[in-house]
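Weekly modeling sync, notes
Attendees: AB, CL, MP (scribe)

Item 1: holo prediction request
CL wants a bound-state model with 2-phosphoglycolic acid before deciding which constructs to order. AB pointed out that an apo prediction alone won't tell us much about the pocket. Agreed to run with the ligand included and paste results into these notes for async review.

Input as submitted:
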Amino acid sequence: MRTPIVVGNWKMNTTPTLASKLGKAAGELATKHSGRVDVGVAPPSIWLERVQQVAGEHLGVFAQSCSEHESGAHTGEISANMIALAQVGGVILGHSERRHVYGETNEAVAAKVSAALDEELSVILCVGEKLEERDAGQTWDVIEAQLDGSIEDGTEPDGIIVAYEPVWAIGTGRTATSAQAQTVHAQIRDWWRTNFGDQAADALRIQYGGSVKPANAAELLSMPDIDGALVGGASLDAESFAAIVAAARG
Ligand code: PGA
């Protein structure tokens, strides 16, 4: 049995006060559902320490990105090593906003994934197709190319969680139907099986992301290959986030 994992991706939102409030509420949720649902949050990096202070022992805390480089002249970046030294447990990588707004290539994502895994961080690796790619029947081709390109040969996959986030469903209020999501999740698990074997594929947790809210979470999370959610907008409201976590518990 895979433990579902629900992570709130706060993106570039929150104030210090709100970050502490949401972090504390998420920490309480993590404690309440401990052993049944893994709960995490990904605050802006400037609030990571603040959130850790109120998180309690069960909340997963994630950075939203990291550099592929170890150190040096990379203004604005933080390294995987810094994240690990700050005792932050994981990092979101390859988010569509990073890929499509900031031009992160698969090669860059792959280097970041390796850098993060080398530091023993958990990685939430995001993949997802754009609307025109879905409409052109290219959904799986795009996801497969992202998986092939974002994980370097020889990678030990145990630290990776995959998040399937159709780009057209992010922040738009449009959700993939549970059947559409399940189809892609099953294909991702098959890809994992081919590349990493049965045990790794059966253990892989695949989150769905894209306009997850209390009203649609239970149905999405009831699908056999949907093992959690990466939640943007709804994670900025403590009650909504709590309802989504409760839906993951089933
Ligand atoms: P959303 O964002 O829930 O606001 O659609 C999800 C994400 O981008 O991780």
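Recorded for review: The chain has a mean pLDDT of 97.
Action items: CL to compare against the apo run; MP to circulate these notes.
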